[in-house]
Specification:
This protein folds into 4 domains: 65 residues, Chorismate Mutase Domain, subunit A; 90 residues, Periplasmic binding protein-like II (D-Maltodextrin-Binding Protein, domain 2), CATH 3.40.190.10; 76 residues, D-Maltodextrin-Binding Protein, domain 2, CATH 3.40.190.10; 91 residues, ACT domain (Alpha-Beta Plaits, 2-Layer Sandwich). The protein contains 12 helices and 15 strands. Strands 1, 2, 3, 4, 5 and 11 form a 6-stranded mixed β-sheet that branches. A 5-stranded mixed β-sheet has the order 8-7-9-6-10. The chain is α/β, with parallel strands linked by helices. It is found in: Cytoplasm.
């Protein structure tokens, strides 16, 4: 079969792209050499390899000057990978995440850090935190809440029980698929998935798989692994699990809520400086007396600080005692936030700032 004739115009465009690619290659290597030089400087002062606020500022500046046709999502995707590759020339960042491989937690790692990191799957949220505390890894990525099913209690408890700091967040759209070996429900006797995934797809399952047994397992990736080994099992999982376990989709986007999103936290040992668009998370408890919660919240109103999340959870220190988890807009070093926190210390029996970090709302997916 003969090759189709390529027009002169197309050849001209291809030659221009080839020339630009060579320029990009030269500039990228120049950037990489500068990153290596920065790494040598950081090594002398034991400075951290990754500064989340700095990387957020780089993306903000690029997007502010971008004139298209690439959009915000394209710019973030491209430059996160560039920064990840350059950062790895200083030192490979190590990240623990709630495994096994093929989970949404793994996707959150790649979304935040890029692909040039060492990602280590662990068996529990507590183990992910322990690895950072023991300095086995630099960071941990753990789920904290889902837009449909609410908070992840084990993560909230782990935050209270450790001295780790929140360094960043990831908002990951959740696109569930029903996966099996053949791509057909014929012969399927059981659907395996994490309990939250089963709950997030309950209406779809009721309508399209009403007679099939459902089994809750420790993760969607475990369900996918079981489906890979047993043709009578289907799993609810995402694209990464489908590829990793070589499964076929019977149906994509089976989640009941099209806006289903899980928020992940990036935990580390370092405090994160202001990026210009930040959030602060804290946990507090107040005496069990009339008006205590009102007094706890009043400083934020007085300083015009916007709260984006308020949730209570049993404190496990006594009967009917609660911790309040609060997310707010701004960095703890911002004047208004600092004044509100100072007032808060006087009304709470326990207060811990869990971290200030770049807000993920700036990260728009292409």
């Amino acid at each position: 079969m003969t090759e189709p004739k390529i027009s002169g115009d197309l050849l001209q465009f291809r030659d221009q792209i080839d020339a630009i690619d060579q320029q990009l290659l030269q500039l990228l290597n120049e950037r990489a050499r500068l990153a290596q030089a920065i790494g040598h400087v950081k090594a002398k002062t034991d400075a951290p390899v990754m500064r989340p606020e700095r990387e957020a500022q780089v993306l903000d500046k690029l997007n502010a000057s971008n004139t298209g046709p690439l959009n915000v999502g394209h710019i973030n995707l491209l430059f996160k990978q560039i920064m990840s590759a350059c950062r790895s020339l200083e030192r490979e960042v190590q990240v623990a995440f709630l495994g096994p491989l093929g989970t949404y937690s793994e996707q959150a790692v790649w979304r935040f850090f890029g692909h040039c990191v060492v990602a280590e799957p662990v068996e529990s949220i507590e183990e992910a935190c322990r690895q950072v505390q023991a300095e086995i890894t630099d960071f941990a990525v753990v789920p904290v809440e889902n837009s449909t099913e609410g908070s992840v209690a084990r993560t909230l408890d782990a935050l209270v029980g450790s001295d780790l700091l929140i360094c960043g967040e990831v908002l990951l759209p959740i696109h569930h698929q029903l996966l099996c070996q053949t791509g057909s429900l014929e012969g399927i006797r059981k659907i395996c998935a994490h309990p939250q995934a089963l709950a997030q797809c309950r209406n779809w399952l009721r309508q399209y798989a009403p007679g099939i047994e459902q089994e809750a397992v420790s993760s969607n990736a475990q369900g996918a692994s079981m489906a890979q080994q047993d043709a009578t099992i289907a799993a609810i999982a995402g694209e990464a699990a489908k590829d990793r376990y070589q499964l076929k989709a019977f149906q994509e986007h089976i989640q009941d809520d099209v806006n289903n999103t899980t928020r992940f936290l990036v935990l580390g040992r370092q405090a994160t400086g202001p990026s210009g668009a930040d959030k602060t998370s804290l946990v507090a408890s107040v005496p069990n007396q009339p008006g205590a919660v009102y007094k706890m919240l009043e400083p934020f109103n007085a300083e015009n600080v916007s709260l984006t999340r308020l949730e209570s959870r049993p404190a496990k220190t006594g009967k009917w005692e609660y911790n309040f988890f609060i997310d707010l807009q701004g960095h703890q070093t911002d004047a208004a936030v600092a004044r509100a926190l100072d007032q808060l210390k006087r009304t709470t029996s326990f207060l811990r700032v869990l971290g200030s970090y770049p807000a993920a709302q700036r990260d728009v997916k292409a």
